[in-house]
Amino acid sequence: MLKGAFWKNQASIPFRFTIIRANDQCASCSEPTMTRPFYAFTCRHFFHKDCLESEMKQEQDKYNSLVEKERILQKQLEKSTSLNWTPKKISGKLI
Predict the structure, then answer these.
(1) Can you tell me the distance from the alpha carbon of 19 to that of 25, in angstroms, rounded to the nearest whole number?
(2) Among 19, 32, 52, 60, which is disulfide-ready with 47 (CB 3.0 to 4.6 Å)?
(3) pTM for the full predicted model
(4) Cβ of 48: how many Cβ atoms within 10 Å?
């Protein structure tokens, strides 16, 4: 989901160019950019293709995990609401 939105946003940016310098580094691994296939963005961020794909996979996994946690919490909320659950106090603290 995030990956598709990212590339769609990139495609909407008007054509521009950037100069790649020999000392430019990958924003992910800090190795020289031109040692492997890379992406260069107009904001002057450079990523090796494999580094960017790895970072996007990690972010997608985090996003998927958060969506799953939200789904579980929503189910718990619906269940507690349907059971007419009310908070109880023990030693002056709500539980």
Answers:
(1) 13
(2) 52
(3) 0.58
(4) 22
Query: In 1-95, which residue ranges form alpha helices assigned H by DSSP?
Result: 2-12, 49-82
Cβ contact 32:12 at 8 Å: no
Amino acid present at 53: E
C-alpha R_g of the chain: 23
CA 62 to chain centre: 7
User: For 21-57, what is each residue's pLDDT tens digit?
Assistant: 999 999 999 999 999 999 998 889 999 999 999 999 9
Supply φ then ψ for residue 86, to 5 degrees.
Answer: -130, 145
38 with 46: CB under 8 angstroms? yes
